[in-house]
Amino acid sequence: MALRSKLIWTAVGLAATAAVGYALIPAPAIVDVVPVARTAFRQTIDEEGQTRVRDRYVVAAPLAGMLRRITLRAGDPVTRGSTVATVVPSFPALLDTRTEAELTERIGAAEAAWRRAGALVERAQSALSQAVVDRERARRLAEGGTLAQAAFERIRLAADLAAREVAAAQLEQHAAEHDVAQARAALARASRPDAGAGAAAVPFEVAAPIDGAVLRVTRDSEGPVALGAPLLEVGNAADLEIVVDVLSTDAVQVIPGAEVSIERWGRPTPLAGRVRRIEPSAFTKVSALGVEEQRVNVIIDFVAPREAWAALGDGYRVETRIVVHAAEDAVVVPAGALFRSGTGWSVFVVDGGRARLRAVEIARRGGAVAMIASGLSSGESVIVFPSEAVGDGVRVEARRRS
To answer: How many domains is the chain built from?
Structure first.
């Protein structure tokens, strides 16, 4: 009987000791766990930009005089050669030598600009011819399987851009022809023998240089106007591009032809774009924090059809993601799982209910995710934003999602 009581009390003591020991064990740390994925990775440069009309033309007063009220408003369509403004010239009693020389030199400058525009047209047409030849050669190679599809797409894009350059150069030539005609008309009217103080002034009609729409009316009220004063701006509102200024350290990573995702432009569906040009000259810009930064303009063309972005106009704000590196099969983890450990990067991997410190090598970082070169494999789980309670070997428990 005494032996039985002794065994019972011994068992009770052991149970109490085990209960006290279990109560003293630290509770597992509650953590957020994310699986390591093997998926496509895109490293992007994210910046705000704005749309702008590709070719903008400022219609100026061809001579000094009295401007009649301009009835056109922003958005009104115009055709090349149609009257957009009327100026009644105010001629001096005598055409002095200085004024005549100025008008003559203006004709010379306009003719030089016209010849230069013609040379640009010829150069753009030559580039287009070569681009078309390259495109046809690349198409045959791609069909034969000796050229990658991505390389063929770049060559085809170059041909499309060359065609646009030809169209832009032709518009410049049309505008230059218009300037020459205006300069000659101004000299002819000023040189008339009956252009004295008592002669009746003949209204001069200012014509639109291109087919397009009025972008902005600079001066709409009737009144005196000086020679060369801007009256209104004309452009093709359907021919838009996007200009984005990026840090010069980011601009060196961007290449012509890079894919662009255009987001937050007013509708939920992103638009596809492509980098056409990285301007060679940087400029200084003061950030919102008062820091001087060297920025570079990147010019982006829309790849999406016109119907998808028809609601956009000149000067609209957009957000862009310029792809500087793409990998279709990469080990990707959230950037919040990475932290500095010594001179390298590490993560906490969940293994058997415990956190294990693991050194990793980062290949590239892109926004909220990073591509891992070594140290992790698909299927493992990492802790995101680990707290101070998490350490190597600490018991952890994944937070339950409600």
So the answer is: 2
Structure tokens at 354: 């415990």
Decide if 226 is inside a domain. no
Helix or strand run (H / E) with residue 238: none
Is 62 part of a structural domain of the chain?
no
Q: Is 372 helix (H, G, I), strand (E, B) or coil?
A: strand
Amino acid code (one letter) for 166: V
Q: Is 272 helix (H, G, I), strand (E, B) or coil?
A: strand
Q: Which helix (H) or strand (E) holds 134?
A: helix 97-143
169, 200, 231: which is the final residue of a domain?
200
pTM more than 0.90: no
Query: What would the two tokens of residue 13 be?
Result: 């003591």
- Give residue-wise pLDDT tens across range 292-321: 999 999 999 999 899 999 899 899 999 999
Cα radius of gyration (the chain): 35
Q: Are 276 and 255 in contact (CB under 8 A)?
A: no
360 assigned to some structural domain: yes
Q: In 227-363, which residue ranges form alpha helices assigned H by DSSP? A: 248-251
Rounded CA gap, 269 and 262, in Å? 9
Q: How far apart are the first and last CA of the chain?
A: 56
Q: Residue 66: phi, psi to the nearest 5?
A: -105, 115
Q: What angle is formed at CA 233 by the lines to CA 227 and CA 234, rounded to 5 degrees? A: 125
- Does residue 189 belong to any structural domain of this protein? yes
Instruction: Give the closest residue to 355 by CA, choosing from 335, 400, 385.
Output: 385
The alpha carbon of residue 218 and the mean position of all alpha carbons in its chain are separated, in whole angstroms, by: 28
Residue range of the domain that includes 138:
91-200
- Residue tagged 């792809």 (tokens): 323
The stretch 95-108 carries a mean pLDDT of: 73
Q: What is the largest CA-CA distance in the chain?
A: 146
Read off the pLDDT of residues 149-164 as tens digits, 9 standing for 90 and up: 888 788 888 888 888 8
Cα distance between residue 223 and residue 366, in whole Å: 57
Angle, in degrees to the nearest 10, between helices 149-190 and 97-143: 160
| DSSP-based three-state secondary structure for 402 | coil
Produce one character per residue of 41-75: b if its CB has 16 or more CB atoms within 10 Å, e if not.
bbbbbebebebbbbbebbbbbbbbbebbebebeee
Q: The CATH number of the domain where 37 resides is what?
A: 2.40.420.20
Average pLDDT over residues 176-188: 77
- H/E stretch holding 160: helix 149-190
